[in-house]
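The protein record filed here:
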Amino acid sequence: MIRIGILTSSRADYGIYLPLLKAMEQDEEISFKIIVFGTHLSKLHGYTLAQIESDGFNVFRKIESLLLGDSPNAVASGYALTALKFSEFWEENHQEFEVVFALGDRFEMAAAVAASVPFQVKIAHLHGGETTLGAIDNIYRHSISLSSNLHFVSTDAFRNRLIQLLDNNNAEIFNVGSLSLENLATIRLLSPDEFEKKWKIDLHLGTILVTVHPETVAFDLNEKYCKEVCLALEQLSVNYQVVITMPNPDTAGMVYRLAFEELRKKQEKIKIIENFGTQSYFTCMKYSKLMIGNTSSGIIEAATFQKYVINLGDRQKGRLAGENVLHLPFDSYQIVKKAKVFSQKQFEGTNPYYQPNPSQTILGILKETYANFS
């Protein structure tokens, strides 16, 4: 029996983990325990621990360390507090697991992994080797990779980049594709009528799905960027329904939150959702005409739904993107102009992140290499 830990700090990583968790649940050679922290435990961000529990998973430990502020000091303090809390957790539990999964690039995830290093916890990192030059997450992602023993990447390009980063040609790096795309093949999406009943949002209307996070490298420019986004969305709401999902608790995140709330008060056709959950988020993506924002879901999942994406600014700069992604600056005129054109089109190309059955591939590799963790 392989004893596995799962670190999950947000709705985003949990949604990606989901097919892997389901595969582990069905595998008699695997036992796993879920460690929950970050925005999962924040009522401001939708308290998404409830979603994990409603999916039928038991939570091994809840670790609260997230501060409410979004200033650089608050983020740095949140990182430090998370590392402190996890230093206590690892001291008690570092022998509990053969391997612990960490996903992505959040600062909370990086802090939890950094605290594990002195205890020599074996970390398996998902989605390493990627680049997002407009976000400090780029640094956190690489720090997680440098602290990890096993690496499951989503393309060969990221595998090659990770070999360079680790400076180790013998590193255990495996290209398995994106787990989140397996979600799309297995999850039951809602019908438009079911969605409307749940969220009071009519997807029969022409809908634009919007997810904008702060640029955490050039965080002093976020007020300017936010004004351009809001101006564009206000103009687009004349002809479209605009559904906005709220940003992560990054530096300057409240700038967007407050502005979107004001926008909703002015425009009936602008809807705001704190947390859709995996099923509803992908349902909204499926029935939308277009995506606008700077989120990884636009880069990775949207092509599978044959959607065009207007990717704003530098947050995702450097990340491999399909031909469905149009890169634009935070400029309201350009956003509106391109949105009107590409909302009328359907993408016909392929998704560069797709590979079949990544969860089974991961479990197979884990079993084959289990001797390395003994």
Observations:
- The domain at 192-342 is CATH 3.40.50.2000 (Rossmann fold).
- The longest strand covers residues 30-37.
